């Protein structure tokens, strides 16, 4: 065939001019004939395709040539043959007919072409031009060998020969490569054209893009195979039934699970196959699915052909359908016989378990996740004082006090959130006799199918056990005579104190206290009196230490004290001094007065050592040093105490002289509005110019003033000077300027503080609204009535109240609401740090103040970045070195007088 086609092509190319002209005439006539043929041909689905590469499937429609006679007649005319039926010719001028056919042909979106018997293309439409990538001029007069590679051309030529040989309509599928590289599927349809004598003189062809159809067929095939795979894999039975319950289709991997054979079931109604009661259940499932779209959980019992009866759970879904008049349902029938047997076993076991629960002495109850009781045993009934019928359905809030009920609820939620058993000890007042009992309660979360459904509680009365445990602990860790911790507990707490101090970077102290001449009391008055003296000494020692300290009796007349978190040796010295003072008072023993002294030795962690035994040893050495030094005193293991005490005494003496000779003065640090830089007030700060030591920081002498009581006179002097300054700063014509004055907690211990301040205001001509009192957070922690009353009186008089260094102490939101606080001063430690946590704390303080209607002043602002952050965060007022260091009174007055 290849050789034949190539020969024909060569022959045509070598034809004389006359022959070629004749062919051109045939082509022109053929166009006219082909357009008529297209009009008469059956329509194909629309679609366009790019050039194709190979044919894949051929399907021939074998029919009589007469079936396509209407297509042959115009084609015969184009090549000079007489038409069979004269009525098929169109009586119009050739040019008009030519133009009309061309328009119609180009309007067809399918690629269409026609050839003569020798394979020469006589015409095509624009769709074919686009498909082939060539113009009509490049196609007409050419054969397939001129248009595509030889191997492909031979395939198409062979298909054309087959069409000419067999006639009829030839259809086949082919694949082609699109310009973007994708594969396109085509359907080609060709028919042979015959003349009046029945000779096949040419063909007409059209192409259709069937890529989407092929893809859809492929997807459908895969979906069907996937569905069949699922059905084959699941052990359940799948039915399709109509609304009447008629079996339309059955899929079952295990045919033994069918009530009847598949071929018997098809066409039958559910009610005809199942017993009446089970059939009713199945039809209810269909009705529910018809109304809601699905139905789940209904179970039926079916007798199988082998005589076995099994349980099945029905899951019904209304099947989607484009035909709304036909409603069918898909029913998944799952064998749950084993589950039913397990449920029955569980019910029986539950009944037996409940019988056991009623006999055990422990209290048992079960609640759902909302706290409602589901069951309880007799022991729990006795504890609550109600029958189970009165308990089930109720919550703890219905049975107990609100506080106790909330406690129980919190413990329940804690166990449920933890997802595991939690053991607690809960104090409870028994209903039977009103006695207080201690219960060891175990709360166990209950899960059903992986979902939390409740909480199981088991409680045991451990009151007697707890009493025994306390007695055993008391005997093991406490001195039977004084009730103080013994040496064992002391050593344990010593190790804990050292570990905590090391972790926190703190100092801690160890004291050993030994009574002087205790043996003489024992020998003179006897051991009972000596024991009573030891008990009284223990009481006085406990009263002389902090609540965080531990006083222990190591044996005989030797006591020990643990003092965690001490700032310096002065703290230890103060505590030791209080102990010595307590021993200085008389002891009443057998109606007689006795005076007993003691000697105290002190060691410090980590200065003197880090090992527990070393610290005890060093304290013991210091104690004997105290005895050798005359008794009734204390000694440190080092000389730090002596140095510190001497320095403190000298500082106290110098401070008294400074107050007498006017070495103290006030400096003022301005407060500035962040939005415009305007100065609206200042803080009065005490300064001490020592004639020899120079400037002494307030942190060094304020503490001494408070401990010695000098703070009262010093505080009144500061208040008087600051009020004079406030009056000067707010003179006529000057902008408002408020002076902030720091008050010590010691000043609030003095009666009539508010009256003292009022007297100073009157003396200085200062108005209350011109000053602000700054206090520390520690003052508010005790919340004593006197402090609250004083602050309220000051606030009522017009004096504003500010909390200084807010956030560094034991900050509590309650005192912000309970006390008349006007201003919060954010401590400089938050401002100077740029870490995210500190900045968020600043924002939080600002937010709290805004909510409570309080002002905020930021202390210690030193950079423009800090000012920018505060302004962006909503802070209105700041003070710090960025604006001004504390300045003397004269400088502030000059600055305030400037316009």
UniProtKB/TrEMBL annotation:
PAS domain location, by residue? 97-148, 349-419
Q: Which GO terms describe its biological process?
A: cellular response to nitric oxide
The record's Gene3D superfamilies line, in alphabetical order, gives:
3.30.70.270, EAL domain (3.20.20.450), PAS domain (3.30.450.20)
User: Which positions fall inside the GGDEF domain?
Assistant: 506-639
Extract the Pfam families matched here.
EAL (PF00563), GGDEF (PF00990), PAS_4 (PF08448)
Query: Residue ranges of the PAC domain?
Result: 170-222, 296-348, 422-474
Q: Name one GO molecular function term.
A: cyclic-guanylate-specific phosphodiesterase activity
Q: Which reaction does it catalyse?
A: 3',3'-c-di-GMP + H2O = 5'-phosphoguanylyl(3'->5')guanosine + H(+)
In what residue span(s) does the EAL domain sit?
648-899
Domain of life assignment: Bacteria
InterPro entries registered for this protein in UniProt = Biofilm_reg_signaling, EAL_dom, EAL_sf, GGDEF_dom, Nucleotide_cyclase, PAC, PAS, PAS-assoc_C
Task: Return the protein name.
Answer: Diguanylate cyclase (GGDEF)-like protein/PAS domain S-box-containing protein
């Amino acid at each position: 065939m290849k050789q034949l086609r190539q020969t024909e092509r060569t022959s045509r190319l070598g034809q004389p001019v006359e022959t070629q002209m004749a062919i051109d005439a045939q082509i022109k006539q053929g166009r006219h004939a082909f357009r008529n043929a297209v009009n008469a041909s059956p329509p194909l689905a629309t679609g366009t395709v790019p050039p194709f590469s190979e044919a894949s499937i051929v399907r021939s429609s074998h029919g009589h040539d007469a079936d396509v006679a209407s297509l042959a007649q115009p084609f015969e005319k184009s090549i000079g043959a007489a038409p069979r039926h004269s009525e098929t010719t169109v009586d119009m001028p050739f040019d008009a007919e030519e133009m009309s056919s061309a328009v119609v042909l180009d309007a067809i979106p399918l690629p269409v072409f026609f050839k003569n018997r020798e394979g020469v293309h006589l015409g095509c439409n624009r769709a074919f031009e686009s498909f082939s990538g060539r113009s009509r001029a490049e196609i007409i007069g050419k054969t397939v060998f001129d248009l595509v590679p030889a191997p492909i051309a031979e395939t198409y030529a062979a298909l054309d020969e087959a069409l000419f040989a067999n006639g009829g309509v030839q259809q086949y599928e082919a694949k082609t490569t699109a310009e973007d590289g994708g594969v396109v599927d085509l359907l080609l349809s060709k028919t042979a054209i015959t003349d009046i004598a029945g000779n096949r003189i040419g063909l007409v062809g059209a192409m259709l893009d069937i890529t989407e159809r092929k893809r859809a067929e492929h997807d459908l095939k895969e979906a069907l195979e996937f569905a069949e795979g699922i059905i084959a894999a699941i052990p359940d039975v799948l039915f399709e039934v109509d609304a009447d319950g008629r079996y339309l289709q059955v899929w079952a991997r295990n045919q033994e699970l069918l009530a009847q054979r598949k071929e018997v079931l098809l066409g039958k109604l559910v009610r005809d196959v199942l017993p009446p009661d089970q059939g009713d259940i199945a039809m209810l499932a269909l009705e529910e699915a018809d109304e809601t779209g699905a139905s789940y959980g209904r179970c039926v019992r079916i007798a199988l052909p082998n005589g076995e009866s099994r349980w099945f759970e029905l899951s019904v879904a209304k099947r989607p359908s484009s035909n709304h008049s036909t409603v069918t349902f898909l029913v998944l029938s799952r064998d749950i016989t084993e589950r039913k047997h397990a449920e029955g076993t569980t019910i029986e076991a539950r009944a037996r378990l409940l019988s056991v629960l009623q006999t055990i002495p422990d209290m048992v109850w079960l609640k759902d996740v909302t706290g409602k009781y589901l069951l309880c045993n007799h022991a729990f009934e006795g504890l609550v004082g109600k029958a189970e019928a009165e308990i089930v359905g109720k919550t703890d809030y219905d049975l107990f006090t609100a506080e106790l009920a909330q406690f129980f609820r919190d413990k329940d939620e804690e166990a449920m959130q933890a997802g595991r058993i939690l053991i607690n000890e809960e104090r409870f007042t028994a209903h039977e006799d009103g006695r207080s009992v201690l219960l060891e309660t175990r709360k166990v979360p209950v899960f059903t199918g992986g979902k939390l459904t409740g909480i199981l509680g088991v409680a045991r009365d451990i009151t007697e056990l707890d009493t025994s445990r306390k007695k055993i602990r008391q005997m093991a860790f406490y001195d039977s005579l004084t009730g103080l911790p013994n040496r064992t507990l002391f050593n344990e707490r010593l190790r804990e104190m050292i570990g905590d101090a090391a972790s926190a970077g703190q100092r801690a102290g160890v004291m050993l206290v030994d009574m002087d001449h205790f043996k003489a009391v024992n020998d003179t008055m006897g051991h009972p009196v000596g024991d009573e003296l030891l008990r009284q000494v223990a009481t006085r020692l406990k009263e002389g230490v902090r609540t965080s300290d531990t006083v222990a009796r190591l044996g005989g007349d030797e006591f020990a004290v643990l003092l965690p978190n001490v700032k310096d040796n002065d703290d230890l010295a103060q505590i030791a001094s209080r102990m010595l003072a307590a021993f200085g008072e008389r002891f009443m023993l057998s109606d007689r007065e006795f005076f007993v002294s003691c000697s105290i030795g002190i060691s410090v962690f980590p200065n003197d050592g880090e090992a527990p035994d070393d610290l005890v040893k060093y304290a013991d050495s210091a104690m004997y040093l105290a005895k050798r030094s005359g008794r009734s005193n204390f000694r440190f293991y080092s000389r730090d105490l002596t140095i510190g005490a001497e320095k403190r005494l000298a500082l106290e003496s110098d401070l008294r002289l400074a107050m007498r000779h006017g070495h103290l003065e006030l400096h003022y640090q301005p407060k500035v509005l962040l939005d415009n830089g305007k100065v609206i007030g200042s803080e009065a700060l005490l300064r001490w110019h020592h004639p020899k030591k120079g400037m002494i920081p307030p942190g060094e002498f304020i503490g001494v003033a408070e401990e010695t009581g000098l703070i009262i006179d010093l505080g009144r002097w500061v208040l008087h000077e600051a009020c004079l300054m406030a009056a000067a700063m707010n003179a006529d014509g000057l902008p408002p300027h408020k002076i902030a004055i720091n008050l010590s907690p010691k000043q609030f211990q003095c009666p009539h503080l508010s009256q003292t301040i009022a007297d100073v205001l009157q003396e200085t001509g200062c108005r209350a609204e011109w000053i602000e009192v700054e206090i520390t957070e520690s003052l508010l922690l005790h919340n004593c009535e006197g402090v609250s009353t004083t602050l309220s009186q000051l606030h009522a008089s017009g004096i504003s109240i500010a909390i200084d260094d807010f956030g560094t102490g034991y900050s509590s939101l309650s005192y912000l609401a309970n006390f008349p606080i006007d201003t919060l001063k954010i401590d400089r430690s938050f401002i100077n740090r740029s870490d995210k946590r500190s900045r968020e704390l600043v924002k939080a303080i600002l937010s709290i103040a805004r909510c409570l209607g309080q002002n905020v002043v930021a202390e210690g602002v030193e950079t423009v970045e800090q000012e920018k952050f505060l302004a962006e965060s909503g802070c209105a007022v700041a003070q710090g070195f960025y604006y001004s260091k504390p300045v003397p009174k004269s400088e502030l007055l000059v600055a305030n007088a400037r316009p």
